[in-house]
Amino acid sequence: MPADTADANLKAANGLARLSGILRAEAANGLFWGAGPDEEARLHRLRELAAALLAQIDHRPYEAILAVYRADTGLRTPIPGTELRIDCADGTRLVRRRRLSHTSGTLGQRLETAAAALRTRAPAEPVAIADTDLAGLPCPHTFLLVYELETHLDAAAAAALLEPTEPDLEGDVPSLNPSASGQEPDHGPLAVGPVVRQLLDAAAALAKESLAVSDNFYERERQQRVLSLCDSAVAADVDYPRIDCGDLAADCVATGADAAIFNETGRLLVIRRTDTGQWAVPGGAAEVGEPVGLAAVREAFEETGLDVELTGLSWAFDKRDTKLGDSRMPMIMSFTAAALDPEQPLRLAELEASDARWITREEAGAMDLFRGHELRIPAAFARHRGER
Questions:
Q1: What does pTM read for this prediction?
Q2: Where is this region: Disordered (predicted)?
Q3: What is the span of the domain harbouring residue 284?
Q4: Helices 217-232 & 194-213, crossing angle to 10 degrees?
């Protein structure tokens, strides 16, 4: 087989793994939030089709893949992890990548444990964000907070003290400055063979069935995404190789992203949530298949109507480190941002926000803030002002 054909087939297989992961997440998240019996049946069928898609390329049989997918009980988002870059005394740089899980400890605990083992100080902030989806890896979508450490130990001594990189996170995973992490991924059209086309047609039919009968905004939004994904695939002559799509059962610590949008006078935009009546910066769950920075950009647009660009990361906020544990979404990536057009008017999403204000740091202290924002909003002001 010519090298370019083999490369194209591998790219198609990796793309199919990505598509299966997205559809898996759509099914899991729809079931998590709840639906009527007919919609629930469609979501279960969508999950089966997602497993069947992965079975076209993965070395595991369909039944084994479906059993893992059926075990999803929480929200599915990109999975958070860390990439530790350790500069050793002998000039060697070690790199260790591992996911965060509900049982492996919090982000803060991981950094403190690694620093103590290496006899150095824990890093305060990530220097970059790496992303397996942007890298084209077929494993479950994972974003990695990149931290740099220095140690007086040589590489051999340091390596003996650190857990190894998880096998499916090996490889070339480029990283981005946090302010550049809001970019749209460009994977190009997905080439699919006849069997995959049939499976996607079945998924599209489910989406159309749901759109014909559902008046629930979130259900319709979900099924429109599914339909768009199915319709974007391009029929081609593809000979899929068998690949390893990584740790399908990797624990998903659900992640959200928010955008602290500052105007030219240094005021922060907050919205009044319709569910609690409290004030917050715009944000929500990250979606499998999108960089976590892009989730902040998307949520800002959906909730305020503003097109924004990221200016930095104010806090990789693990609620479990702050006694603000949330079993639904423990990890929040809090970005700072600015409107691309300062004159662009606000357009609030009626289901998400009932009011909006541009506030000062002092005004924030007197407001009824949504849980966690009493910590995140001051951190955003500090980042925006260059105080940290």
A1: 0.95
A2: 166-189
A3: 255-384
A4: 160
Tokens of 96: 């260790």
Enter the tokens of residue 134: 């942007």
19 and 57 together in one domain: yes
Q: 171, 203, 233 — which closes off a domain?
A: 233
Residue 296 inside a domain? The answer is yes
Only one residue has tokens 């004030």, namely: 279
Contact of 361 with 335, CB cutoff 8 Å: no
Q: Are residues 60 and 7 in the same domain?
A: yes
CATH of the domain at 297: 3.90.79.10
Q: Are 149 and 118 in contact (CB under 8 A)?
A: yes
